[in-house]
From TrEMBL:
GO molecular function annotations of the record: catalytic activity
AB hydrolase-1 domain segment(s): 52-262
Designated name of the protein: Pimeloyl-ACP methyl ester carboxylesterase
Domain of life from the UniProt record: Bacteria
SUPFAM superfamilies documented for this protein: alpha/beta-Hydrolases
A GO-annotated cellular component: membrane
């Protein structure tokens, strides 16, 4: 069990729960894409540099990306998007697969007039981010995959749920009300069907088509994406490097944002000039 810093826990929750209200750093914005209003949390004062697009994982939203977003916002523009049907974004009706979600992001980037961007995805968000990079390479400057799923050696719902449960003692306990709120927004049906879509997706088969530079990061206390799986993904990518986030669990973007940002920011600085 981690020795929790309660001041940090309260700050993480404040950042996660702020939308749609503006705060000192971020504001909520909506953009209509194919008749659906998509919500994203955006840095209000954009420093120069390539924007960073944060893509959330399964059944959650922009909310659990916000602790990391706050650490990145001082060095470059940050956008934390709610995928259609999740968070504060509108309901598109049908549940989109990985390629479909990548298409939604591409259409959204065109609508807001941004790109190429650096894309950071956590968990299932890493699957969507790689699909975006493979199918729309002109839109992606670089990629960061944090705890990427789904490990092909455990591609069943029981195994993935067990791995996630094993990691819970290392996660920020303040994340629980955030996850429950996100699940209520998405609905159990959409979340469960997306889980199945994530399991059926073979991220490792897509990676040879990703030409952008990639950083694969996993937490030192990660239980969902083991080091063996990270090595497999690394071998499949033309331009990749790996890193371990010290003392971090699967949702390093929420629980260990300082440690993760310390790895991500130098990578973004190196790759922005390429």
């Amino acid at each position: 069990m981690r020795d929790w810093n309660w001041k940090h826990l309260r700050e993480h929750y404040r950042l996660a729960a702020a939308a749609p209200r503006p705060d000192a750093v971020f504001e909520s914005r909506w953009t209509e894409v194919d008749g659906v209003r998509l919500h994203h949390r955006a840095s209000r004062e954009d420093p120069p540099g390539t924007p960073v697009l944060l893509v959330h994982g399964l059944a959650v939203s922009h909310r659990y990306m916000m602790p990391l977003a706050a650490r990145l916002a001082g060095s470059r523009p940050v956008r934390a998007l709610d995928l259609p049907g999740f968070g504060l974004s509108g309901d598109p009706g049908r549940v989109a697969d990985v390629d479909g979600l990548a298409g939604w992001i591409a259409a959204w980037l065109e609508a807001v007039g941004e790109g190429p961007v650096a894309v950071l995805g956590n968990s299932f968000g890493a699957q969507v981010a790689t699909a975006l990079a493979a199918e729309y390479p002109a839109l992606v400057k670089s990629l960061v995959l944090v705890g990427p799923t789904m490990d092909s050696a455990a591609a069943t719902k029981p195994r993935q749920i067990w791995r996630w449960l094993r990691g819970l003692p290392h996660e920020d306990p303040g994340q629980l009300p955030v996850i429950l709120r996100d699940l209520a927004d998405a609905g159990v049906r959409r979340a469960w069907r997306t889980f199945g879509i994530a399991l059926d997706d073979r991220i490792e088969q897509r990676l040879p088509a990703v030409k952008a530079p990639v950083l694969i990061a996993r937490g030192a206390k990660e239980t969902v994406a083991p080091q063996r799986w990270v090595r497999e993904l690394d071998r499949a990518l033309p331009r990749a490097e790996t890193a371990v986030v010290p003392d971090a669990p699967h949702d390093a973007n929420y629980t260990s944002p300082d440690e993760l940002a310390a790895l991500v920011i130098p990578f973004l600085e190196r790759t922005s000039a390429q």
